[in-house]
Amino acid sequence: METRRDRLRAATVREISETARRILVEEGPEAVTLRAIAREMGMTAPALYRYFGSHGELLRHLVGDLFTELTGELRSALKRVPHDDMGAKCLVVSRQFRAWALAHPREYALLFGTPVRGARHEEVDFAEECAQQLGLTFMELFLELWEKQPFPVPADDEIDPALREQLRRYRDDVLGVDLPLGVIQKFLQCWIRLQGGVSLEVFGHLEFALEDAAPMFELMLTEISAVLGLTYTPPSKG
Fold first, then answer.
1. CA-to-CA distance for 219 and 222, rounded, in angstroms?
2. Where along the sequence lies the DNA-binding region (predicted)?
3. Beta carbons of 218 and 184 less than 8 angstroms apart
4. Using CA atoms, how far apart are residues 39 and 42, in angstroms rounded to an integer?
5. What is the mean pLDDT of residues 159-163?
């Protein structure tokens, strides 16, 4: 049973995380220090060590919170489209992923930029578990699509041997699913295109040519949809 002390501790941890995020957004990742957070909260820096053992632990906890928020937004987006419309589900999740990233560029950079290092503590496990939940959102959707509308994939012996062994390790040791390696390859191909394209846009690497990258993003979605045998539907206006 949760005690009053437990509730107070949880509330303080939540306030620390919210303060860290506010500093991240307003001043950038370098400004997110224990001293800065303590100053904002009217605490001493040593007092924060009762809640987080290190700066790395604190950032990892923030990473976990952000992954959880992003995952929640993707799952909420899925509820806005018909359950049996696989094309609409894949498109709405992809578009919501981009929308969150563009609305929260510094948070996105913390999640998908340079990895945040931290000691192997429970907070690290928390961050990794939250990241896995995000990955599962996409993988579960991909598995549902494969079960309902199988799409063309290469046979195992058609995959480059060096890639084939990596895919096998990822499938068996990380995902723990019973799927052809070609499905795993296709999943990673789609994820690399989606996350890579969003990252280029968020980090400003498309500005040399594009003022508005949305049409290029939609073009990428049409190509991914064709690869997966899905019907592409343009985003609604307004």
1. 5
2. 33-52
3. no
4. 5
5. 97
DSSP states of 3-35: -HHHHHHHHHHHHHHHHHHHHHHHH-GGG--HH
Query: pLDDT at position 116, please?
Result: 56
Q: Does the structure show a pLDDT above 90 at 68?
A: yes
Select the more confidently predicted residue: 139 or 238: 139
CA distance 112 to 116: 10
Q: At a CB cut-off of 8 Å and minimum separation 6, what does 63 contact?
A: 110, 111, 116, 127, 130, 131
- What 200-204 contacts at long range (C-beta under 8 Å, 24+ apart), as own/partner pairs, is 201/98, 201/101, 201/102, 202/101, 202/102, 202/105, 202/108, 202/109, 203/105, 203/109, 203/113
Q: For 142-154, what is each residue's pLDDT tens digit?
A: 999 999 999 999 9
The pLDDT value recorded for residue 160 is 97
**Angle subtended by helix axes 34-41 and 55-78, to nearest 10:** 70
Q: What is the pLDDT of residues 227-236, one digit of tens each?
A: 999 999 999 8
117 touches 200 (CB < 8 A): no
Q: In whole angstroms, give the CA distance from residue 140 to residue 157.
A: 25
